[in-house]
Amino acid sequence: MLNISENTGVNNVILDPRNPSVLYATSEQRRRHDFTKIGGGPESGIWKSTDAGATWEKLASGLPSGDVGGIGIAISPANPDILYAIIEAAGETGGFFRTTDRGASWSKMSGHTAQGQYYNEIYGDPGDKDKVYSVETFSQYTEDGGKTWKNVSTKNRHVDDHAMWIDPSNTNHYLIGGDGGIYETWDGGQDFHFKNNLPVTQFYRVNVDNSLPFYYVTEEPRITAAWVAHRATPEWSGVVNDEWFVTNGGDGFWTAVDPTDPNIVYAEAQYGNMVRYDRKSGEAIDIRPEPRKGEDTYKWYWDTPLFISKHSPTRLYVAANKVFRSDDRGNTWQVISEDLSTGTDRNTWPVMGKYWSADAVAKDVSTSQYGLIVSLEESPVRKPAVCRNRRRADSGNR
Fold first, then answer.
1. 249 and 373 fall within a common domain
2. Are residues 303 and 236 both part of a single domain?
3. Residue 305 CB burial class (10 angstroms; 0-12, 13-18, ≥19)
4. How many Å apart are CA 124 and CA 129, to the nearest integer?
């Protein structure tokens, strides 16, 4: 019912619990390509309908004008006349806003906001109209309507939160979910119980080694880097949590296991942050190639390729804007190519029908550099190795 343009969608719809014909919605103008991201525009905003969505009014009084990005919105369960909004916007115009008259006028309570692409989800406390939670990298809560903010505890808990449920009969009891799983507290966040029986991990890649009698499986989850466990186990219940061990931190990407020594595991996190992990000692040594004297900083892709040579178990290959080879398990590296990046200026293409300035909302935030090496392969038959590289290039050229 609320159709704005091909560049703008609606990402939140909430109902007044006293009258379901009263709706509030948030629109977000954004576009993400492989070469750039624009996180906001003039079509983003907060809308209200009093006729179950047949017609809509864009609310403006007290809200940011100009280019606006992600918006999170919540109606207070304790007093539905009050709504809160957390808004990403150009310059210093964004922040945390409140209305006490069902959207007719808004007041900026503080400059607190969260990155619209990942977060901007807020939850009102069912028993306190002035208490609101914002789930984000380190989740926050306010007890004065958004003027000041405090951290939600991360004691024995992962960061990067995205969802929340508050028990209306006991607001000290709530569940919070995010990149690390689901946690429950009964004391307002002083202590959390982790729900460890949910098979919901997202894996980027899976690899195996040559261990006997049972090989190990290495898996690269979205958030907690590389985990390793037996493919088989004598336990009747199968592989349990205690059988896994961690080889690296960060987001897990490529892993490789020495085919002659399964105790040596190479594990990679984002932007080429790789280690050589010794399963016997538990030691992880950083092995990412670093610039030589007088050389510019290397440009690493989000999940840069890393693998062991098919011809030598001690030879590694990895790529940034250049290709690197190590013949001693990552202790030292050779640069074996010139700069292979395309050198493309990603600002030379229009987005949503126009060219955007450097101060556009969330421009290129959490977007990898463009034109770098994204995949790499070694000839399986020729020695010395002949490398074939792929680069992100203009118009799909390779």
1. yes
2. yes
3. buried
4. 7
The two tokens of residue 105 are 């006028």
Q: Is residue 192 part of a domain?
A: no
Same domain, 15 and 133: yes
The count of domains in the chain is 2
> What confidence score (pLDDT) does residue 230 get?
57
Note the pLDDT tens digit of each residue in 120-142: 899 999 999 999 999 999 999 99
Task: Report pTM.
Answer: 0.87
Tell whether 144 and 216 lie within a shared domain.
Answer: no
Is residue 196 situated within a structural domain?
A: no
